[in-house]
Amino acid sequence: MSEGTLYDKVWDRHKVTTLPNGQDQLFVGLHLIHEVTSPQAFGMLQERGLEVARPDLTHATVDHIVPTANQDRPYADDAAERMMAELEENVRDAGIQFSDPTTGDQGIVHVIGPEQGITQPGKTIVCGDSHTSTHGAFGALAFGIGTSQIRDVLATQTIAMEKQKVRKIEVNGELGEGVEAKDIILEIIRRLGTEGGVGYVYEYAGEAIENLDMEGRMSICNMSIEGGARAGYVNPDETTFEWLKDTDYFQEHPEKFAELKPYWESIRSDEDAEYDDVVEIDASELDPVVTWGTTPGQGIGIDDPIPAPEDLADDKQDTARRAQKHMRVDPGESMEGYDIDVAFLGSCTNARLPDLRRAARIVKGRQVDDDVRAFVVPGSQRVQRAAEEEGLKDIFEEAGFEWRNAGCSMCLGMNEDQLEGDEACASSSNRNFVGRQGSKDGRTVLMNPRMVAAAAITGEVSDVRDLKEVALQ
Amino acid sequence: MSDPTEEIPEVDYVEGTGIPIRGNDIDTDQIIPARFMKVVTFDGLGEFAFFDLRFDDEDNQKDHPMNEERFQDANVMVVNNNFGCGSSREHAPQALMRWGIDAIIGEGFAEIFAGNCLALGIPTVTADHESINALQQWVDDNPDGDIEVDVAAETVRYGGNEISVSVDDAQRQALVEGIWDTTALMKANRNAIEETAAQLPYLDQTRSDVEADD
């Protein structure tokens, strides 16, 4: 068992007791909720005559179903309107703070928590969404939960869990040109497998991780779940603290920053911490990664050949064959030159301001390919405003991108933004599952935001390193 | 299940007929496509389980075990590795449960999916690749054949065979003792919850009208 890791320390601080079933009961420091997975939980609470125990530690937003084009109420989609109305009623009745679109603070739940400073090191954070692992970038212990567990948290502000093992993933070396956080996590998942992290929490460490900005760390922790790990984290450091200082909470309560810093430092993994497993990755060997299949583990460097199923591990061959048939790719080819119809720059993985800035440097002065519909969906209203203020919106629009409002959008196609028929999409999101983007014949190629920009311009999967970047301003 | 006064049933044993769902990495988007999640209750989700694999664009049935007459009464699903990966949507096990599934035997399960199954009292038990393949084949040949999932003893019996399976310790204890619905269990520890909260340095600093316990 691990010892002295951030995971062990945060777990111990939040452990209420051991339950008769052998699970630990953990206190939840922050419960984030959204419109898709919470209504049934509120319903269960009502049936049992229970109230929300800690509305003050609960925060809501709307992201999955929110339209990104016309947001006038009532929403054009009746089902979306009903879900929104239900959430509004639930948060009003319970007295839960709600970052709805009228506040200017709305956005994807994993973008707004960090923005507002309520995501903090050493907190336990849960949400009915598997990408809650994102918040681990701050040294929080954060994981996705199901609706019955949301009921538990609403009713008790605690959750029943079993302690997991800790795998340290040490990423050393310097990232090459055009290579970024997204490529690191896609490589980790390719190497360790989509199920490799089951039973583990991932600690991301090493100089390549330490050198990342907070947004890059969020991209990595975000996709922990694609590797089977329910949670992933980075030990908080000066980069974390500097970022936190500028958030609402610490702007409003600057004294808290000094007060909490010792706690944040105390929960860092010890130098001599013990891990259940350690994996090393050399970041300098990486090229931009793209997926060729229908699981996030099916990635390759942009120049590499798509593997032959028979060359993969026995248990991966069948999945690979089905994936290659769906994607219509053949072993031996690279993904470079794969025709795309849609370019989607968005999602809780890669729709923060630095992501959009990097993509804009590729897009500036160029035109989206005639056969591609391209759009940008900022991760939050704040990202949207900031990007508009610094001229990114103009750059994207002049190039032929549509500039949308904040939401989950085409990452999972629960609103109007969906693939049609067998369209292929260059996507900065996190899942390339069959049907994920709204069409069961749709084809998703995951990649970093600059690579999405490059694909939008050329109309095919391209190596962004072949396109010159243009300085902004 | 929803009545608080109702006793939480013990799920130490599930018996019934099987349905094989083959393939590794079957994700929750396949189990229940997102467009069916635009609902505020779980009612009626059963008919949408595996929808895109069961029906074409014109809603005609495709080849899928869940469309086969011989599996319509099945309640034990037999799956391969990393079943239920992807999203945390409880809609996935809810859809399977409402279709009629009471237990799932597989090579491996994604963690959030298994946790969601436990919250519904659905055991997720695991066995090795060969045992699962053999069982899937047997179910294909014997759609009316009886399968007994003994959660307490960690065995599965079918057609004169007995295989040993693994059930995660906490899951087994929770199911066997009928303590898998954790709301009331945890709510009873009110004092301990408050003591833990009082020790958390960040708690008095949440942006709220209500102050922390201290």
Q: Under the CATH scheme, which class of the largest domain in chain B?
A: Alpha Beta
Q: Under CATH, the topology of the largest domain in chain A is which?
A: Aconitase, domain 3
The strands making up the biggest β-sheet of chain A line up spatially as 5-4-3-6-7
Q: Tell me the distance between the termini of chain B.
A: 35 Å
Name the assembly state.
heterodimer
Mean pLDDT metric of chain B: 92
Question: Strand count, sense and closure of the main sheet of chain A?
Answer: 5 strands, parallel
Tell me the series of helices and strands of chain B, N- to C-terminal.
EEHHEHEHEHEEEHHH
CATH class of the largest domain in chain A: Alpha Beta
- From the 3D coordinates, which CATH architecture of the largest domain in chain B would you assign? Alpha-Beta Barrel
What best-fitting shape of chain B do the alpha-carbon axes yield? globular
Count the domains of chain A.
2
**Could you tell me which chain pair has the largest interface and how many residues each side has?**
A-B, 93 and 73 residues
* Rg of Cα set of chain A: 21 Å
| Helix/strand class of chain A | alpha/beta
At CATH level 2, the architecture of the largest domain in chain A is: 2-Layer Sandwich
Report the CATH topology name of the largest domain in chain B.
Aconitase, domain 4
Superfamily (CATH H level) name of the largest domain in chain B? Aconitase, domain 4
Rg calculated over all Cα atoms of chain B: 20 Å
List unreliable stretches of 5+ residues of chain B. 1-5, 205-214
EC number (chain B): 4.2.1.33
Enzyme class (chain B): lyase
Pfam family, one (chain B): Aconitase_C
Pathway (chain B): Amino-acid biosynthesis; L-leucine biosynthesis; L-leucine from 3-methyl-2-oxobutanoate: step 2/4
